[in-house]
Predict the 3D structure of the following.
Amino acid sequence: MAKIYAPKKLVTNSMKPKKEIVSFLINYSKALSFVKVKDKSFEIIAN
Amino acid sequence: MADIQLQDALLVKKYVDGDENALTVLINRHQSKIFGFIYSKISDRDISNDIFQDTFIKVIKTLKSKSYNEEGKFLPWVMRIAHNLIIDHFRRNKKMPMFRETEEFSIFSIMSDDSLTIENKIIQEQVEIDLRKLIEELPEDQKEVLMMRMYQDMSFKEISELTGVSINTALGRMRYALMNMRKVIDKHQIILTN
């Protein structure tokens, strides 16, 4: 009996976010820092 | 390939200590699982991307502000954040559902403008004037209770305290006020609807 092969993969592509999103997150992380003054914490985003 | 062997906890520690590459490894390692989870609930790629981004923004902020307590549960923690953002998304959508226009469907076919037309507005104003005239015809005690209840939105407790009678008396006066108004409306066949 001949084996039947599906023309396309049966398994869908793994779910991944857009590359731009990941790239943004990495850049955001690099730009973000926190500064603590007394009991307050300030977010700073470097341009 | 040493990164593969590094556990999440160690990568988190390295990231908190300033190693940005550690974040890249963490994201690459878990992105499929997290994005897949989000997409399985949302079924929309664009929104899933947004939620994925928002999830990791929260992760980054928490880690960078050194507010994260390492308990060896990095991935469950991130999944919890994603889960909560998904719930927020559904709550927002429930209050304001988004309709996308297509060739077959236009939102204007089911949406209508509820505001009154000029004609209806004039009728409504006339009805209110007629109603006030009817109220003026009531006995003073009934008129007082009705005005307080309907126009000043007072509770019967407040009305009874102000007028110096019991709540039951205030309720009774309200009841008689309405009965009397109905009698006059029926007698003169007044129309008070828009």
